[in-house]
Design goal:
Oligomer: single chain
Distance between the termini: 23 Å
Number of strands: 0
Radius of gyration: 27 Å
Strand content: under 5%
Largest sheet: none
Structural class: mainly alpha
Shape: elongated
Helix content: over 70%
Number of helices: 9
Length: 260
């Protein structure tokens, strides 16, 4: 409910902003401006309490979920046979790294992604309803840029998922080396293996560092392309809205309402 209320604040803002622009041209500005200021304050309060409820509830539920998953995962690990720990990838260090990191990823998905998806869905539906009722022609022209945004998001998510998967493999290996070195610290000091273990640990960190660089490049390109599409959609909306305004089919406030 908090995410839905926060998502609805943006369509409400577009309506208020488009109407308050025309208020400045009215002769009785001093009498009516306070009413619109109070509306914006009310919208700010709505957004404040909505985001507070969204962040608190989702993070609280995510912490409960992660705690339960870690407990169940640990119980499953200690009940395995000895042969399970001899299999490749099931070393004690790698399993401890997964116990610490994999469950945290679930918390990030539950606490951030789900709330963001609900908020974006409500914002999209509310914006489309307001824009369609204002001017269906301008809505169709502006909405033609949405497929480009979807394609950019799909390509970015698929590539970043592959990079994150490769990065996770290197992180598990480095975690295994660190756990083995710390647990057997007396043996490492006895045989003077500090430099060798540091070299092994650094070697396993080189892979995740390279993948993180690729991830940053892909994220930057996809984010820049999405921002270009957004501002291009604004340009297209204002251009076609200007044509409709010149032909008398739509008013100035409706152009802003449909565009934002």
């Amino acid at each position: 409910l908090g995410a839905a209320a926060a998502g609805s604040s943006y369509p409400i803002y577009s309506v208020l902003f488009s109407n308050i622009v025309t208020v400045f041209y009215q002769p009785n500005l001093k009498q009516v401006i306070w009413k619109w200021c109070l509306k914006f304050i009310g919208l700010g309060l709505l957004n404040f309490f909505a985001l507070l409820a969204k962040v608190y509830c989702l993070n609280f539920a995510g912490e409960k979920l992660v705690s339960r998953l870690r407990q169940q995962l640990f119980q499953a690990l200690v009940r395995q046979d000895i042969a399970f720990f001899d299999m490749p990838g099931n070393e004690s260090g790698a399993l401890c790294a997964r116990l610490a990191t994999d469950t945290t990823l679930i918390q990030n998905v539950w606490g951030g992604a789900i709330g963001a998806y609900v908020q974006a869905t409500v914002c999209l539906i509310g914006g489309l309803v307001i824009a369609w009722r204002t001017s269906w022609k301008l809505t169709l022209v502006t909405g033609s840029c949405v497929p480009a945004l979807i394609v950019a998001g799909i390509i970015s998510n698929r590539y970043m998922y592959g990079v994150a998967k490769k990065r996770g493999t290197g992180t598990d290996a480095s975690g295994q080396v660190a756990a083995e070195s710390i647990s057997a610290c007396r043996t490492v000091f006895a045989f003077n293996l500090q430099a060798i273990q540091i070299e092994r640990y650094t070697h396993f960190l080189d892979g995740p560092a390279k993948h993180s660089g690729k991830k940053a490049v892909v994220f930057g390109l996809s984010f820049g392309f999405s921002q270009f599409i957004i501002f291009g959609a604004f340009a297209l909306s204002f251009w076609y809205g200007g044509r409709l305004l010149h032909e008398g089919e739509i008013g100035f406030a409706n152009v802003l309402k449909c565009s934002f």
